[in-house]
Structures are given as structure tokens and as C-alpha cells.
Amino acid sequence: MKEKELKDFLLKKDEVFKKAYKQHKQLEKKLEKLKQKDFLTEVENMEEKELKKKKLFLKDKMYYLMTEYRKAHK
To answer: How far apart are the C-alpha atoms of 69 and 74, rounded to whole Å?
Structure first.
């Protein structure tokens, strides 16, 4: 199964994957709002870094879940 197909499948069938995906998208929206600003305060800079870390963690989690699904369904 190709990556896109697997993502779509897991979004429908796996609640953990679905939750991680939704959180990832929410963080992406928050980051986009920050990027639209001309200047970030120190607090906003720290928030941006935290959002990026959380977003990366969720992306890694989704890829891990995809890898585990592939292993289990060879």
C-alpha cells in the first residue's frame, strides 16, 4: 500500500492515528498564524519552537504507526 493510501486507511480505521493526525493539523494551523506576523515576541518565539517540537513528535508517531501496520500486514 502506498503512503497516501495507508494514511487514508488509517485515518478511517485507527483512532490513535486519527487523533495524532488531527492534533498535527491543529498545530500546523497555529504555526501558520504565527508565521503571518511580521514580528514575534519572545513568548511567541518560544511558543513557535514548542509547536514545532510537538508537531514533529506527532509526525514521527504517525510514521511509526504506519510502519507498524505495514509490518503486521505483510
So the answer is: 9
The pair phi, psi for residue 29, each rounded to 5°, is -65, -40
The answer, yes or no, to whether residue 6 has pLDDT greater than 90, is yes
**Residue 9 reports pLDDT greater than 90:** yes
Side chain identity at residue 41, one-letter code:
T
Q: Is 20 exposed, middle or buried (0-12, 13-18, 19+ CB in 10 A)?
A: buried
**Cα-to-chain-centroid distance, residue 46:** 19
- Rounded-to-integer distance, Cα 10 and Cα 50, Å: 26
- How far is the CA of 63 from the CAs of 20, 29, 40, 74, in angstroms? 10, 20, 31, 17
Tell me the residue type at 74. Answer: K
In whole numbers, what is the pLDDT of the chain averaged over residues?
Answer: 96
